[in-house]
Amino acid sequence: xxxxxxxxxxxxxxxxxxxxxxxxxxxxxxxxxxxxxxxxxxxxxxxxxxxxxxxxxxxxxxxxxxxxxxxxxxxxxxxxxxxxxxxxxxxxxxxxxxxxxxxxxxxxxxxxxxxxxxxxxxxxxxxxxxxxxxxxxxxxxxxxxxxxxxxxxxxxxxxxxxxxxxxxxxxxxxxxxxxxxxxxxxxxxxxxxxxxxxxxxxxxxxxxxxxxxxxxxxxxxxxxxxxxxxxxxxxxxxxxxxxxxxxxxxxxxxxxxxxxxxxxxxxxxxxxxxxxxxxxxxxxxxxxxxxx
Length: 292
What we know:
The chain is α/β, with parallel strands linked by helices and 292 residues long.
C-alpha cells in the first residue's frame, strides 16, 4: 500500500465514523477532497454546502457547483450575509472570525433541516500552526476537520485530489476577496467588485495564475504577482494599459510590489503576539488570508 493509499483509507475511515455530515465546499482543493471522501464514505448521507456572498470571487460558485456534480455529492447553496455585520465590515484583525461564524451558523440550519450530524471543513494539518482565524469559529460550532485530524498536509491533499481525478488538484489558493483589503479599511461591495475585476484583468491579460490586488487607503492598489512577471507589468505599453484599466475600476494609485506574491501578506501588519494567540487558539481568531 502506497502512502497515498494509506492516507485515503485513514480519511475514509475518519469520515465514515460520522453518521452523516455537511461539508463546507468552496472551489478549492482541500474542501473538494473532503467532499469526495465524504461521498465515498457516506454516500447520500453526505451533503456539500457552499456559501455565496459578495466576498466570493467571480466564477468560484460556478466551479463549486461543477465540483459537486463531478464528485456526485448532493449540493446546497446558501446565501451568507457577513457584510450586514458591522464587526465584519469594519475590517479589524478579527474579520474572518465573523465570516466563519456566519457560514457555520447558516450551515447549522441546513444540517438541522436535513438531519445531518456533523459539520465538516477542509482545514489540513499545515493549517494548525498557521495564522488561521476561522479555526476558533469552527471550534465554537463543533466543526470537524478530518484532514487535520488525520495529519494530512497540503501537499498530500493535492496528491489525493490528483489520485481522485479532481480538476482542482493544482489550483492556487483562492481566499475571499475581503482578505485583500488592508485592516482598518472598510469592506464594501464596491471595493470587493473593484478587486475582483482587477484580478480578473491580470489573469486574463497577463496570464497570471497567482496574483493579488491589495486595497490600501486612498484607493491604492498594490499588485502582488510572480517575481518573473514584474518586468512585464512595469513595461511601458503594458504599464499604461494596466493603469488606465485600474483607474477605470476606481483605483487612484496603482503600484507593483517588488517582493512579488505572498499569501497573507497583510498579516505582516498584525502584531506577532496577536498572530500567536490566534494560531494557538488562546484567544479569539484574527483576520488573515487563505481559507481562514
